[in-house]
Write a structure and sequence with these properties.
By secondary structure, the protein is mostly helical. It is built from 13 helices and 2 strands; from the N terminus they run ααααββααααααααα.
Amino acid sequence: MLYELVQFSDQIGPLNVFRYITFRTGGAIFTALLFVMLFGPGMIDLLRVKQGKGQPIREDGPKSHFSKKGTPTMGGLMILAGVTVSTLLWSNWSNLYVWIVLGVTLSFGAIGFYDDYLKVTKRTTDGFPGRVRLSLEVLIAGIATYAIMKLSIPELSGKLAVPFFKSLLIDLGPFFILLGVLVIAGAGNSVNLTDGLDGLAIVPVMIAAATFGLIAYLSGNVKFAQYLQIHFVPGTGELAVICGALIGAGLGFLWFNAPPAMIFMGDTGSLALGGGLGAIAVAIKHELVLAIVGGLFVLETLSVIIQVASFKLTGKRVFRMAPLHHHYEQKGWQESTVVVRFWIISVVLALIGLATLKLR
């Protein structure tokens, strides 16, 4: 919206600043943060009244979590509202990548919202039937990937870029849609599994958003892309604005989600944020880098897969409890200790992910 002010820059010189992605990304961060901070308390009060007993707590979960009984969920609505308002205000509406990523984010958020709604109304930890939920995620991710392929330049469409190699592209053809589905749906569910402790998921999401915001800006700028020897993807620089909105909304949400949490993001937020990050990674041709930057989410997911496979095959558990953060809780780590140490791991992984830009 504000980007359109550029057309008046000939008459009013200072309006030319809206041309720059860096300026609009900064504006998106501040706007999303301010929106969530202003409207967050009212949304929390409303959700508390509507939900009554709040999010159901797993009976087989860590005993320390029973003290959180009554905390409202669906805090992802705060994040999504901030991201949407900020993105629409600061992004270039003619850029189709923006609409694809925003569409995936809101669609995954809608799936998560329905899941949270069922849990709250039925007073159970079982929400949306798994197969139906996954089918919807696959459908949305498949449509988004197909649209991204159509937008991409012919040299990159349907091809997988391999980090650490400046010109290596693997042509997957139509099978690239399967890869895109795996990345987008996988990222959504991985963040969802990680969201189990106060503040645990939102900070790594913000770290990943900051990392991919920078990569999107560099990939969408021909000069920077040539200098770093990464693939130039025209138009994707605008995705830095969405990443900025994710950071700002995440900061605002963390204010209320910091221990002890006043609200949980729920599947409404975790599915949406993960799916959005996955869509950005596919758009900017850094799908494999997402597995590095979001390595914490990958570890959490693998812990669940390993635990289930081991129990079914041998009858024994590898971890005391899955996902991984519960394992360390069961070992006696304080919740805050687990959260901060996992944040540190996320920072290290993000730095490794950024290193792939130059190590080629």
